[in-house]
Amino acid sequence: MFSIYLFIFLSVVALFSALKVLLSKKPIHSVLYMTLTFFTLAGHYILLNAQFLAVVHVIVYAGAIMVLFLFTMMLLNLNLEGEFSKSTLMKIVAVIAGGLLFLVLIASLKSFDVATVGTPELTQIGLVKNLGTILYKDYLLPFELSSILFLSAMVGAVMLGKKD
Amino acid sequence: MENTIAQIQTIPLQYYIIFCSALFSIGVAGVLSKRNAIVIFMSVELMLNSANLLLTAFSAYRNDPAGQIFVFFIMVVAAAEVAIGLGLLVVVYRSTKTIDIDVLNRLKW
To answer: Which pick of A86, A89, B39, B100 has the fewest CB atoms within 10 Å?
Structure first.
């Protein structure tokens, strides 16, 4: 019973901070609320017993990506306060579009057969040992290719960022 | 440990689907309603993360590790994408002095 309260708490905080990402006037506040969202999502991963993903999520998203966003924003002095915003009509249309998408996704739950989902067993797959074994056994080639992807991304970022 | 694992299953899978749908819809609304390119980027990250969480939830409930491996690779690609995307934004900002996507529409037509 405790975990369901934890789930609801984490979900409410995540949705609230996700909304604040959109509603904040200053982009820098958006980034900080985004970090809060990422931490709550890490809590969700732990709730699912996916500990490896939780740690990687915190390191990659909260540790690397958000720092990158903050650096870009601060170094370029992009923290412009509400200097430009879409017209009210466009905002309303955007909210309606998002709400309709949500409605469709929820409505599709009606035809979702719960029986197709296997009974959740005592899952241990999220632990580092199991995931590491699978990663290095069955997914070795994609894993190595991802390092090449990282190398090319790094070279590209350096090339783009260089003053010419 | 056993106790924790047993508790996980008290949450219905539908709750995860609803939560992730809500998060995804917020991301979509953000992409549509914002003009600051960095905030649009963050909304895209939000959508990626909701998909990640749902993959993990299904993977945990079906006892299939492939879903969590996919999430790992999605994180890898997202990190690379953000590095390149922000680099592009810096270049654009240097040449045009703005990151307002309504101004940067010369490639549109």
So the answer is: A89
